[in-house]
Design goal:
Number of helices: 0
Largest sheet: 3 strands, antiparallel
Order of helices and strands: EEEEE
Number of strands: 5
Distance between the termini: 25 Å
Length: 76
């Protein structure tokens, strides 16, 4: 996953991703860029690992972004 800040100020991002698959695999993973924020024009590469302790990880999961929020560090 790659988050790109297309705004004019640094911003924090919060994203939730749902991962579903055969056999009942269903989990939601979340990430945020709260440490320093993403600089204007910059990107924030993130690798998320989805696990469901009761189901095996599917080979071809369905991945959906369920929410994405941008919060400017300073007022734009």
């Amino acid at each position: 996953m790659l988050i790109k800040n297309t705004g004019t100020e640094r911003a924090h991002y919060t994203v939730a991703i749902r991962v579903e698959g055969p056999g009942g695999f269903d989990t939601t993973v979340r990430m945020s860029t709260d440490v320093v924020g993403v600089y204007p024009g910059g990107t924030w590469p993130t690798e998320l690992t989805a696990t469901d302790h009761t189901k095996p990880v599917p080979q071809h999961p369905k991945v959906t972004i369920t929410s994405a929020a941008r919060r400017p560090l300073f007022k734009e």
